[in-house]
Write a structure and sequence with these properties.
Radius of gyration: 18 Å
Number of helices: 6
Strand content: 15-25%
Helix content: 25-40%
Oligomer: single chain
CATH architecture: 3-Layer(aba) Sandwich
CATH topology: Rossmann fold
CATH superfamily: Nucleoside phosphorylase domain
Distance between the termini: 24 Å
Structural class: alpha/beta
Bound molecules: zinc ion
Length: 278
């Protein structure tokens, strides 16, 4: 099962036999209804992470509910699309980056399913599924200027960076900057879902000493939307059942809390995520 997380612009996806699924999770409701349908002969589940009409800010997104909802629908491969700023000259606006690393500069977002009586430490050295990222890169590079690998710095927002911050992140070696890749990627790993990201560059952030206007960014976002739809159309038919990576066993040995110490009510909520290990 394939899941797609995107901005509201991805409503342009040519999905057939659409069914809108409104659901709730033990972590609250997801950003909006999940659109289930057929694309390229496969079943896909699409969720706009900012909600229909773009009403949910990056800080307000219930990332846990979004990932849990995808998991409960049987999604095993999740394609994540997000607009980013570039921190490198060679990553031009309207280029595409398939990131392979992240730096977390978010604040106050709940970035784990495991708390309140259950503790787990999942491996996150490589935040993205390598196999899925490879397929995304190959499909994207066919017709778009695409960069393989890159470090995605996730900032809290919603205001953009100061110039000092932008220079600091460049000095750290970060390639792109955005607001939504975390905790999404962490939660997908905890849910043992393959997670691959496609980052579309909208601007040069502010390190180039040019003011970043919202109008300019929006116009590049619109241009990038066509590229993203093209990439989805190419990638979805090529996805096979996962198995060439270890994402679906990421939680093996990760739960530290002894099974008999896990509260009974928690067990029910966590059955979907780690039932096979309890
Ligand atoms: Zn994987």
């Amino acid at each position: 099962m394939i899941g797609i997380l995107g901005g509201s612009g991805l409503y342009g996806l040519p999905i057939d036999e659409i069914k809108e699924i409104v659901m709730d999770t033990p972590f609250g409701p997801p950003s909006g209804p999940i659109i289930k349908g057929k694309l390229g002969g496969k079943t896909v589940h699409f969720l706009a992470r900012h909600g229909p009409g773009h009403t949910v800010s990056p800080s307000e997104i219930n990332y846990r509910a979004n990932i849990y909802a995808m998991k409960s629908l049987g999604v095993s491969q999740l394609l994540s699309f997000q607009a980013v700023g570039s921190l490198k000259e060679e990553l031009r606006p309207r280029d595409i980056v398939i990131p392979d690393q992240v730096i977390d500069r978010t604040r106050g977002r709940t970035s784990t399913f495991f708390q309140g009586g259950i503790v787990a430490h999942v491996g996150f050295a490589d935040p993205f599924c390598k196999h899925l990222s490879e397929i995304l890169f190959e499909a994207s590079a066919e017709d778009h200027r695409t960069h393989k690998g890159g470090t995605y710095l996730v900032m809290e927002g919603p205001a953009f960076s100061t110039r000092a911050e932008s220079h600091l992140y460049r000095s750290w070696g970060a390639d792109i900057i955005g607001m939504t890749c975390l905790p999404e990627a962490k939660l997908a790993r905890e849910a043992e879902i393959c997670y691959g990201a496609v980052s579309t560059v909208t601007d040069y952030d502010v390190w180039k000493e040019e003011d970043v206007s919202v109008e300019m960014i929006i116009s590049n976002i619109k241009a990038n939307e066509d590229a993203v739809i093209d990439i989805v159309m190419k990638v979805v038919p090529r996805l096979e059942a996962p198995g060439r990576c270890s994402c679906n066993s990421a939680m093996a040995g990760a739960v530290i809390t002894s099974t008999d110490s896990i509260p009974e009510d928690k067990r029910k909520d966590y059955e979907l995520l780690i039932g096979k290990y309890l």
